[in-house]
Amino acid sequence: GVKLLLHGLCSNTTVKSLDLKGNNLRTMGAEALGKLLRQNKSIRSLILEWNNLGVWEEGFSFFCQGLGANNCLQRLDLRNNQINHQGAVELAMALKQNASLQELDLRWNNIGLLGGRALLNCLHSNKTLKRLELAGNNVPSDILKAVEQATDHNQDRQTILRETQNRTHILSKEVLSLKDEKAKQFLDLMDTIDKQREEIARSGRLSAAQVSQLQEALDEQHSIMNSLKAKLQMTEAALALSEQKVHNLGELLNATRQQQTSMVERHFTELQQQKQEGADREGKLLRDLSAASEKNLLLKNQVKQDLTNTTAELKLRAVQAEERLEMEKRRFKQSLEDMESLRLKEVDHMTQHIEASERSMQDRIQRLEAIRIALEEELSQVKAAALTERGQAEEELIKVRNQARLEEQQRLEYLEEKLRLMTESRDEAQNCCLKQKQMVAEAQAKANQLSLHADGLRRRLEELQQDLNSKEEEKVTEVNKVKVELQEQIGHLQAERTAQEGLREKIAALERQLKALSSNHREALLDKEGEISMLLEKLRMKEADISRMREEEAQRASFLQNAIMAYVQGSPLGTHSSRK
Predict the structure, then answer these.
(1) What phi and psi values does residue 400 have, to the nearest 5 degrees?
(2) How far is the CA of 461 from the CAs of 362, 388, 509, in angstroms?
(3) Calpha distance 147→130 (Å, rounded)
(4) Are 146 and 121 in contact (CB under 8 A)?
(5) Rounded to the nearest 10 degrees, what angle do helices 482-570 and 141-314 cross at?
(6) 3 state DSSP class of 133
(7) Which partner from 58, 97, 272, 551 sits 20 to 30 angstroms from 159, CA to CA?
(8) 105 is in which domain, residue-wise?
(9) Low-confidence residues of the chain, pLDDT below 50?
(10) How far apart, in Å, are the Cα atoms of 72 and each of 39, 82, 558?
(11) What is the annotated localization of this protein (predicted)?
(12) What does the pLDDT look like over 307-320, one tens digit per residue?
């Protein structure tokens, strides 16, 4: 694993410090480390504490060869690696060749006397090693002191060399800077003399040309401001027209709503009147039936009384009683037939009256449906007119903006950054318009759904009419069940009432949707007004910037004139003319 890691680090140029402490590295690890030290040029610190690199002499000698060939390592830690005097000799040979290592830690090894002498001898030729730790290696104190003196001597020598190099570098820089400054001063003097001569000739021409250019620029800016003001007036007029149209549309919507409410109230009052009439007729029929039943009871009582009276008289006048009984029976039959005919006539009259009332109700329902269809058509026409007017207003706004954009691009190139902001605002406005169009399309889809729902209601009404016709036929066939049929009619009337209430609720929902649409249109108009106010503020800012530019150009022109006058007065030609 260490071999693969070190092989990968051979070509690395970012790692500055490598710590492989306590990894039990041996021959293969030592060879891989030697190869790393030969090829790598970025590692400055290498820690190899608690390994066994000194046990195998061949691997350690390969490591020392790599160390001798390295020129970038500055710190090496080899503590507790079982390095003997032979390994120390190889390290000394590597240190004689190395010229970059500054710190070497060899504590707690087996270097001994021979290894210590070899390291001390290598310090005479190595001038870069500042620190060498040899504690715990059975090295005599004399050799340790000599090693410390040699390392201190190397450290002092390196500090002196650094100071001398820094001083020489600083002095060389100062000398070069002085030379450059003198050459620059001489060249600057020559250039200034030549420039003064050339500028004396050009100053008059440039001043005249600049004054003419400034005047032309001011004239162009005046024309641009006038065109912008005209465009603003046109846009304000267009906005006023659009506001008037929106106000007219709102009035039309309010009128249609009022008409709808009045029609609904009328329909409701007519239904109540019809209900009251039906209830009165039912009461009359019930009263007539009760009177007829009372008359029948009275007749029965009278017959009983007559029979009791006649039983007494039968014994005496049998023949007279039989004749009288027959006459009374005939009269009673005629009275019963008359009563039945009257009752049948009253029932026919009531059925005819009910049919007429139902026909009138159907006619009124058809009229209400025709009125509702006309109102829906008017609403669709109003919506289409609003959409067309909105599209025309948007097209006019887009045309005006495009013209302003083209003119500003042709005449005001130096204001391109500000125009970019205007174009971004225009894109946002277009996005808002697209969103409003989407909202209108959604509202149209909702209106279509409502129309489909209204068609379904019409179908239901037709089905109800068919049911009513069938029930009317049943009524003709079942005259004897008048009470039951009247109760069924009352139930049907209640169902129709509920259906009418549902229609009212749907009309109220449509009115709410219309209110929502109107509120959305108002919000869109308010957004457009806000955008227009923002555009006006931006135009005001542009006018302020243009006025500032004019003032700055006037100040620059005055400064140029003053500078030219001062230069002419201060030049040698001016002094000669003044002396003359």
Answers:
(1) -60, -40
(2) 10, 36, 20
(3) 10
(4) no
(5) 150
(6) strand
(7) 97
(8) 1-139
(9) 573-580
(10) 11, 26, 65
(11) Cytoplasm, Cytoskeleton, Microtubule organizing center, Centrosome
(12) 677 667 767 776 77
99 neighbors 67 (Cβ within 8 angstroms) = no
Instruction: Enumerate residues 6+ apart whose C-beta is below 8 A from 543.
Output: 225, 228
Structural domain count, the chain: 1
58: CB partners within 8 A, 6+ apart = 27
Residue type, 526: L
Residue 577 is assigned to a structural domain of this protein:
no
The CA-based dihedral angle spanning residues 402, 407, 413, 417, taken in that order and rounded to the nearest 10 degrees: -30
Strand 75-77 and strand 45-47: the pairing is parallel
Does any domain span residue 284? Answer: no
β-bridge partners, 76: 46, 104
- Which CATH number goes with the domain that contains 80? 3.80.10.10
Q: What is the pLDDT of residues 6-24, one digit of tens each?
A: 888 988 889 999 999 998 8
pTM of the model: 0.35
Considering the domain boundaries, does residue 399 fall inside one?
A: no
Q: How many helices (H) and strands (E) does the chain have?
A: 10, 5
> How far is the C-alpha of 345 from the C-alpha of 348, rounded, in Å?
5
Strands 103-105 and 131-133, sheet pairing = parallel
Q: What is the pLDDT of residue 479?
A: 61
Tokens of 351: 């059925």
CA torsion 563-566-570-574 (nearest 10°) is 110
Residue 561 CA, chain-centre distance (Å), reads 55
Instruction: Tell me which DSSP letter residue 310 carries.
Output: H
Q: What is the pLDDT of residue 44?
A: 94
- Residue 152 in any domain: the answer is no
Which residue, among 543, 507, 267, has the nearest Cα to 372 in the 3D structure?
A: 507
DSSP-assigned letters across all residues of 550-571: HHHHHHHHHHHHHHHHHHHHHS
pLDDT in tens, 144-177: 999 999 999 988 888 898 898 898 888 888 888 8
SS (H, E, C) 403-429: HHHHHHHHHCHHHHHHHHHHHHHHHHH
CA 506 – CA 513 distance, rounded (Å): 10
In this structure, are residues 418 and 542 in contact, taking their beta carbons and an 8 Å threshold?
yes
In 10 A of CB 70, how many CB atoms?
24
Q: Which of 537, 531, 532, 542 is nearest to 227 (CA)?
A: 542
- Compute, in degrees rounded to 10, the torsion defined by CA atoms 260, 261, 265, 268: 60
How many residues make up the chain in this entry? 580
